[in-house]
Design goal:
The chain has nine helices and seven strands, in the order H-E-H-E-H-E-E-E-E-E-H-H-H-H-H-H. The chain is globular. The chain folds into two domains: about 110 residues, 2-Layer Sandwich (Beta Polymerase, domain 2), CATH 3.30.460.10; about 100 residues, no CATH class. A hairpin with a 2-residue loop joins strand 4 and strand 5. It is α+β, with helices and mostly antiparallel strands and about 230 residues long. The strands form two sheets. It has a five-stranded mixed β-sheet. The chain has a two-stranded antiparallel ribbon with strand order 6-7.
Amino acid sequence: MLHQETVEKGTLDLIRRFMQDSKFNSFYLVGGTALALRIGHRKSIDIDLFTDNAFQSTEIKAHLQDFYSVENIRAISNGVFSVVDGVKVDIIAHQYPLLSKIEETEGIRMLSLLDISAMKLNAIHGNGTRLKDFIDIYALLEYMPLEDMLKACERKYPDVNAAMARNALLYHDDIDHEVKIDFIGKPIEWQLVSERLKQAATNPKLTFKPQQSLKQSRNIRQDRKKGPRL
């Protein structure tokens, strides 16, 4: 079941429209919005649609302009970036291997949690300023141990080794804490996030019990690995 409370109705409607549009048959939802809809930990406001196939960005741009209400549209060789119906939408050819099959829930194609974890670690390694990426890893640690995420990151992004990804996860000086995270349930203090990340880095085989304030809002537990828990 999708956690529809994590996105605005208009955003969810737009995601469904993309999913039903034959022009986007090879695309799937990734990033924080895919994760939020799956596990219900925070709200998310944008749409990231990826494909592992090459596409003509000029064709996608023209299609959006013909059939959607589009602003600030920009096309590059591997992506189209725009605002559609007031929602920031990035459409990208992300030609890295899929670690697990694309999953479909309630008509929405989404990246697996394992692939999302690899992408989040890679994002932190490349740009450790976004608080939401660290929050997402914090939440994912309730579903799988850091060890699995690090291995996934190495498989998906061969230029990033486990030590690099782990070190990036522990470097917090550049994080922009002015950005508001809209949690579902009680807000999570940064100190708790930092402590969990350090514990996971020290013992990468650990998975963690969910915060009590978030536990009631979550229904998906099938992806959580067995093993020692804090």
